[in-house]
Amino acid sequence: MRGWRHSIQARVVVVLLAIVMAGAWIPAGDVHGAGTLLKTGNYTFSFAADGGNTPDKGTTGLISSANGVLFDGKNTTYAGWMGSATSKGTVSVAVDLLKDYPLDSIEIILNSPNRFWGFKEFTVKYRSETHPDYYYIAGKHVRAGSTTDLPYSVNLPMSNKMARFIVIDIKRSHAYQHIPFTELKIYKGTGEEGANPEPPYTAEQLALEMKKDPLMVDKYGQWIYENWTGKVTDDTYLQQEYRDEAEALSKVKLNRKIYDKYGGIKSGGQYKKTGYFRLEQIDGKWWFITPSGHKFILKGVDATSIWEWGYGTPLKKADGTPRGVFQELPDPVAYAPAYVNDSNGERVSFVIANVMRKYGDDFEEKWEEITKQRLIDWGFNAFSKWTRPRGIKFPYIQVLQDPGNLKRIQWTYDVFDPQNETIIDAALAGQLESAKQDKWLIGYTYDNEAGWTADIVKEVLTYKSTSAAKNAFVEFLAPRYGNDIAAVNQLLGTSAASFAELKDASIDIAKVPSADVSEFIKLASRTYFSTIKNIIRRHDTNHLFLGSSVVPTWRTSLEWDSGAMDYVDAFSVDNYVNNADWIARYEAFGKPLLNLEFTFSTTQRGLSPVNAGTTVSSTVYRGTAFKSFVEAQVAHPLFVGTGWFSYYDQAVTWRKDGENFNIGLVNQQDQPYKEMVEIMKTVNAGLEQVHATGGSAVTTVGSAVYGSTGDSEDDMDMDGYDGDSDEEDEE
């Protein structure tokens, strides 16, 4: 069926699997490829370099390899792309060698003027004249070390692969990072060169080359440039894994001698039952208390549903043409549920297709049973954020999304708009009313990762009186200066005849005292959080308000965070870091704290890590990093729980925003990372003790599952997290 299967798939798979992907990092200046150094042809950039040296700096057309800085043999000249709030995340370079050459290796060198320069990762693609429609990948390299570890050199072996065109895509770590490209060394291998080449490509033609896709994944969504133990080869392999895992987990149930039906720890004492989750400070330490009256530490997993949109991958490019990254797509008829076209775009989910292949008829029901058993076995006790399975009863946190029709200001909205409460109430009332008697619901977060900073205030100050936020600022500022417009004009360098006129004047934030900016942000925060608290309490008085999951160092400020504290029951963050030092930022407020998104990742099988700070070298070290980080957080008396992001890896071929992170407990072929989850299992079993003692678990509380404690099945309640009646917890 044309449109879902590459016609070239059968011809290329053997060649692709032979390509060596792992580039060797070597200090700049060492001996490189054995072949002849090529210095031929032309190159161009996806957009002009605005840093570095001429002739590359500022050039928008072709640059001759004979004259350009990328081929001049010097580590002191470079092409550079300056970072800014509006900088593009990826810089591309396209090279035309003028004819096909067998290549021995390609070396990339990046020098650094200072610590503000660097990169996150780069991918090197190539094609010969005989394959005009698609590229192969010579190597994908994620930067190792810190931003100061430059000059930085990576040598990619090519093993005499034929290539005329080479495209290098370099990604930034963040918008403000400057990218340097110092040297590109292409070494000729052995074999016949191409005959009768096409004419040299123009800059416009090379720009089109940058847009061509490389082949990336097989029919199961697996990276085609690497082999590993457990790589899926056919459907029967997946089906046998299901049979084996189902047998191994067949006796897994929540150990009810240790935990109540909600996962509360019975040995921690009996406390007041309210029928819903609540928070209580006991002996100086905050705890969740389950509806049954037992202490509870949240050990959550995010985005646990197979239907999570972020596990899918786009089918088309931005221009609407099909992507060429797939060797073969799932049959759109047989695997119709794997295809979706909604507000998150037209996409396919290899997760759904592989689950269908693996579990067969009634795939979702069978998958849910295995997933429930996995999570209990691994010691997780909640769905902490985003989507969750439809048929599994676990404690959960519900994310309330901010409506799309609020008046936006960059990543947030105008919190002073008098229509906000009506709009938000209309959007959320149905959810709140339907959930208000759900005993499994822990509480709500609202919005996501969107506080106010001085950047938001800076923009507000340029608005006119049609902006509620601008009006609010002037009305906030006037009494701070005795309602004296002359004094305020002198302060701000304005010439308004009245405060009403000042509302229409553009104000330079540099003229506003920092104390005023800080206090205005606090006012905005109090307005935001009080509004949401009022709406929640209007419809649901049973459940907790857990904040808005801010990232402590991004798109928020301590002023904004502090303004929340009088209105939230607990304060939540999303924090992808490798230590618990962030808690000190909030200690003075005394509020219970949650980290609802964190992860540790590695570079493997075509996937990328989230950031340098949480990158580790192997799957095992993902588990040991989890242990160190989670135990350090849970040891703090304010800390009450975590949410691992996420249940599955993202697609190798990216979700719509370009993320393709190794973040899952399970890969997209529904295979658990066994070495990692075994470590997590041990850690999770001891977290209540870590919190109680303020340190490492000397002895574990006990296994969460039946079968590992030596107790007989007849001696314990085997219902687990599956909606049994409340009466059975009257103990």
TrEMBL record:
Residues 711-731 have a biased composition (Acidic residues). It comes from the Bacteria. InterPro entries: GH. Residues 701-731 are annotated as: Disordered. This is F5/8 type C domain-containing protein.
